[in-house]
Amino acid sequence: MVNLFCGKMRILSYNILDGGANRADLLRQVIASEQPDVIGLVEADDPGVVEALANDLQMDFIHAPGNKKASALLSRLPIQSTINHALLRPRMTKSFLEAVVLDAAGAPWTFGVAHLHAHAAEKDEVVREIEMVEVLETFRPYREANRPHLLMGDFNATAPYQKIEPTLCKPSTQKEFYQNGDYLPRRAIARLLDAGYADSLRTLHPFAAETCGSFSTERPGQRVDYIFTFGIEPTRLKEARVVYTEPARQASDHYPVFLET
């Protein structure tokens, strides 16, 4: 398997909730504690917050408004190129950003930062499946070239292997769980896995991938935030986890997820 990546990389994916304007100090604290090299943000709706975080963390950044909400990528490393796919693919209901950064050896790392449609009813999963087709089509040339890349963000979707205890989820999710016939649909993430992407948390910690939640911070009964890899040898992955800290509990309604390669 081709692997172009050199050196190590610390990556954080984080839904910062409605732009994060009144929680910027907490968000900065959460992010800085993980010492990431690259950060994918969704609900990065306030460009001033994104710029302030990037300046405080001494990072380059790109802000990409979507059809609803916005994505952003912050990087300690140079950002070589970016594409705001949400503006090119109107079936993406929220936001979808592609960015290429160059590591210390000059090797390109390609990232997708995605935010898919929310809610847990069957009709919502149908929308996410349509969006996942768009995501997969966007990155099809990379897969065909066996070019390593990563997809991260808030997919608002349940993985096929995740164990759900509905009483641990938000009341709205519980309602949809029971309306669905005591299950949460799982086809959107299955499409990504079938295309060859690996859930980094599952690669390193299968039990945690089945049982850990990232949403909400008050009732973390679901993991909807992921960092997926393609074309990266599993032995390159050093650590993956959901960031359960008290500042993270207060800073957003999602816990961030972390990967170190």
How would you explain this protein's 3D organization?
The structure is a single chain. With 261 residues, this protein is of the alpha+beta class. The chain has one domain: Endonuclease/exonuclease/phosphatase (Deoxyribonuclease I, Chain A, 4-Layer Sandwich). Helix content is 31%, strand content 26%. It has helices spanning 24-34, 47-57, 85-88, 122-138, 140-144, 171-179, 187-194, 200-204, 206-211, 246-251, and strands at residues 10-15, 38-42, 60-65, 70-75, 79-84, 95-102, 108-115, 149-154, 198-199, 225-230, 239-242, 257-260. The strands form 2 sheets. It has a 6-stranded mixed beta sheet with strand order 3-4-2-1-12-11. A 6-stranded mixed beta sheet has the order 5-6-7-8-10-9. A hairpin with a 5-residue loop joins strand 6 (95-102) and strand 7. Helix 1 (24-34) crosses helix 2 and helix 4 (122-138) runs parallel beside helix 7.
How is the main sheet built?
6 strands, mixed
Shape: globular
What is the straight-line distance between the termini? 16 Å
Mind telling me the CATH superfamily name? Endonuclease/exonuclease/phosphatase
Q: Which structural class fits the helix and strand makeup?
A: alpha+beta
Strand order of the largest sheet: 3-4-2-1-12-11
